[in-house]
Amino acid sequence: MKSGKIKTILKSAGIIGLAAGAVGAFNRLSYIAAGKSEPAADSGYYNWPYGKIYYRVRGNGKPLLLIHSLYTSCCMAEWDEAADELSAKYKVYTIDMLGYGMSDKPKMTYTAFIYASLIKDFIENVIGSPSLVIAANNSCAAAVTAAKIYRDHILKLMLVSPNGINDTMAVNSSRLRRIIMEIPLLGTAYYNLKSSKPAIKGFIKKEGFFAKEISRSELINKFYRSAHSEKGNARYAFASLITNYMNMDITHYVAATGIPICIAWGEENTVNPISSMDTLRDILPNARYYIFEKTKLFPHIENHTEFANASEDFFR
């Protein structure tokens, strides 16, 4: 091989090496900047077959399980304010879903059916009796699936702007995209970009809340720390999320659960517009419906007191 070609190859290899080093440094700095989340005093871990599940318990009374949204960086902190209110009347369980927060993040395909199994097993093995359940946004498909398949585990189900009405489903080409997103160096870097503090702040300001003047810095910090609690492995759930493997059509399941259902919606929701509620009204004419004015994706945070009152009214 001529010396010129050798120099070109070595130069290219050097550039690639520098780029890989820069990406690796970016990934390491992301986890250093996020800091470490510490378990709360009222918390524990459930040893589920797919990994350890972090959860908290507060209050006394009939058991109530709160399931957080599955958007990038979400975790049980989404429920902190509502859980504090509801714990006055219920024994409230909040949970970090597999692949999120302080729960384990195994390499696998994350689907609504996997999460439905987690909900069922958690109620059965940790709570120990049939429970009330509230799920938010894109965790609702899993909660509906659990209610349909494991009918004796959920007493009543409240859904906050449920997905599964107009979802885009995974297709054959989604598998390759998911595998690419799981690549350690590049997949982790892309995940770290999407779960950076500016990205979380932008999502919360644009899609999360209607009231722009209210600071959500504490929630942003909790989401940021939870998104980086296990170095790199959060990219697996993220890969399934952005390639639509978590999505499913709930229209047939939700009508066949056989339990009381309540639907709540933030009136200004732009991620999942309130027009989807009309479809659910046709499917579930006897369900209870709440519309929270001047709220968007997280009415259970933005108007947590009124949300807790509506929940108690439904569960009564």
Architecture overview:
The radius of gyration is 21 Å and the shape is globular. Residues 6-27 and 29-34 have low confidence and may be disordered. Strands 1-2-4-3-5-6-7-8 form an eight-stranded mixed beta sheet, sandwiched between helices. It has 316 residues and is of the alpha/beta class. The longest helix has 32 residues, at 3-34. The chain is 45% helix and 16% strand. The protein is built from 13 helices and eight strands. It has helices at 3-34, 80-86, 112-127, 140-149, 174-181, 184-194, 197-208, 217-227, 235-242, 251-254, 276-283, 299-302, 304-315, and strands spanning 43-48, 51-58, 62-67, 90-95, 131-136, 154-160, 261-266, 288-292. The chain starts with a helix and ends with a helix.
Compile the SSE list and pairings.
Blueprint: H1 3-34, E1 43-48, E2 51-58, E3 62-67, H2 80-86, E4 90-95, H3 112-127, E5 131-136, H4 140-149, E6 154-160, H5 174-181, H6 184-194, H7 197-208, H8 217-227, H9 235-242, H10 251-254, E7 261-266, H11 276-283, E8 288-292, H12 299-302, H13 304-315
Parallel strand pairs: 3-4, 3-5, 5-6, 6-7, 7-8
Antiparallel strand pairs: 1-2, 2-4
